[in-house]
Structure formats: C-alpha cells, structure tokens
C-alpha cells in the first residue's frame, strides 16, 4: 500500500514538473519573438497551478521522509530501491532546471509577468532542500562513517545530480547575483542553514571518497545511463545493463532496450533470478531475487 501511494506521488510530481517546465519553455520562446506576443491568461494560470502542485508534492515527500524514512531507505522493503532512485532523479532534475542561469525558469521569472508572480526560486529550492535534508537525517548523525548509505549512494550515483546545484542554495557557486537561503532570515533559521552546510560537507566528503576508488572500466559501464556498472543480463538475448535502468524499463515495457526482443527473465551477475516474465503478472516495483 505504501509503495503504491509513493509511486503515485512521484508520478504526479514528475508530471507536474514536466508540464510546468514545458509551459515555461513555451513562454520563454514567445518572449524572444521580435513581434509583441500576448500570452493567454489561462495558460499563465495553469503554469502557476502546476508550480503550486510541484511545491505541495515536494512537501508531502518531505513529510514522508521525516516521519517514515525507511519507506525510501530500508532495502528489506519491496520497492524501496526503485522509489529512492526515482526520487533522486526527480530532485536532481528540479535542481538542474531551477538553478540554471540560462534556463527557462530563470528567464521567465526575470520577465516579472504579473500572473506568474508566485513563481520564484525560494519555494521550490527550499522544498527540495527539505527533502534532501530529511533523506540524509541519519547520515548527519554520523558524517564520518565509511559505509555509504542508500540515500547518499542514490544521490551521488544519479547521473543528473550535480553538487554545485545544491551548493547554489547557499550562494556558493560564484555567480554574480547569488541566490541564498540566508537571504530569507524570517523563513530560514540559522540552525537550518547550518544543517544545509553540513549536508554539503557530507556530500562533498562522500563524493571525494568515491573519486578515490578505482574507476570502472568504460566497457563495464551501463550503456544506458553511462554511470552505473553492468549488473544484470536479459534473457534470452543476453544484452546487459545496470539494475536501476532495467528496473525502470520493466515498469513500462518488457522488450530489450537494444534488440526489442521480449525479456523472459533478468539474471544478476552472481546468477540470481531477479525477474521472471511468467511470474511477474506485468507488475514490477523493484528487482529482488526470486
């Protein structure tokens, strides 16, 4: 039940943000036309509403992470690995879009369109930071531990995650016009700013440790994400990918990425059967040994 609910929340968050960014890009394109263009007021209201949905759903996720973190981090629960990877991907994409100085978000809010006055960096960035702080709450209690937690691993192994986009929230990217949570003292306390600094230090430390580990041979990297090592083999075609990519793929399609052959089963590098099409009933939440 919890997994189904969280799947629904993440799907709605993904849809809301995708629709919001799509409309922001359209507004950006219209604003760059040489002739004067009047944007439909209804479109502006829908855009603002999608933004509100994104903020609300992020706060829901933050609340869940705060009161019941194991639904994302407890590997013994079915579906947690997939949920955590999807959440990390969403958070990374939001950070990338909102902090980009040349992106549509920055461009449109600089236009100061009256019907879009509720759209700003602070509400969305503070919500994303809230989720990440909640995800890493246990790690902050012991920042020097050598074993990387599932939450940290999921963030740092996410191809779209860039530590600079997180440092951006404290004005640590060197831009001339810095955004910073510190500019909102009535909404963000000194203690909360200190916590964000600790998260940055923690992620920086763990990222440094990752870089010190010997690199994986390029031929052993997943050809889909180009970030994770090859970990599974599809049967009967024997093509390979990382566990994360095939887990996401099997939620929508049972055909091989490469040759489009129907996947009958997925086997891990150590020979464990992770997916059996005959027994799956077309429902995939995560890949665990069968």
UniProtKB/TrEMBL annotation:
Signal peptide: none
Domain RING-type, chain residue ranges per copy: 222-260
Cross-referenced SUPFAM superfamilies: RING/U-box
Gene3D superfamilies reported for this sequence: Zinc/RING finger domain, C3HC4 (zinc finger)
CDD domains xrefs: RING-HC_RNF123
Top-level division of the source organism's lineage: Eukaryota
UniProt xrefs under Pfam families: TPR_RNF123 (PF25576), zf-C3HC4_3 (PF13920)
Keywords noted in UniProt: Metal-binding, Zinc, Zinc-finger
Protein name (Swiss-Prot/TrEMBL): RING-type domain-containing protein
């Amino acid at each position: 039940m919890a997994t189904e609910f969280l799947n629904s929340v993440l799907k709605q968050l993904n849809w809301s943000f995708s629709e919001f960014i799509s409309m922001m890009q359209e507004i950006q394109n219209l604003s760059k036309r040489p002739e004067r263009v009047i944007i439909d007021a209804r479109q502006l209201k829908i855009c603002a509403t999608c933004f509100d949905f994104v903020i609300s759903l992020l706060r829901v996720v933050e609340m869940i992470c705060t009161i019941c973190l194991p639904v994302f981090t407890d590997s013994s629960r079915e579906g947690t690995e997939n949920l955590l990877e999807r959440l990390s991907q969403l958070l990374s994409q939001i950070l990338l879009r909102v902090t980009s100085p040349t992106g549509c978000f920055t461009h449109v809010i600089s236009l100061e369109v009256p019907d879009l006055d509720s759209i700003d960096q602070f509400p969305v960035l503070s919500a994303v930071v809230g989720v990440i702080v909640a995800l890493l709450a246990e790690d902050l209690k012991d920042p020097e531990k050598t074993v990387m937690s599932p939450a940290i691993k999921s963030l740092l192994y996410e191809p779209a995650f860039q530590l600079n986009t997180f440092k951006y929230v404290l004005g640590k990217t060197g831009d001339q016009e810095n955004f910073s949570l510190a500019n909102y003292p009535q909404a963000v306390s000194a203690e909360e700013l200190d916590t964000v600094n600790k998260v940055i230090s923690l992620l920086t430390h763990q990222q440094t440790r990752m870089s010190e580990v010997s690199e994986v041979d390029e031929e052993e990297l997943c050809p889909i994400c180009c970030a994770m090592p090859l970990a599974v083999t599809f049967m009967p075609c024997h093509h390979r990918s990382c566990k994360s990519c095939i887990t996401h793929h099997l939620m929508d399609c049972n055909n091989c990425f490469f040759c489009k052959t129907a996947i009958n089963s997925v086997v891990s590098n150590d020979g464990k059967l992770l997916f059996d099409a005959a027994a799956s009933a077309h429902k995939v939440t995560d890949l665990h040994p069968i």
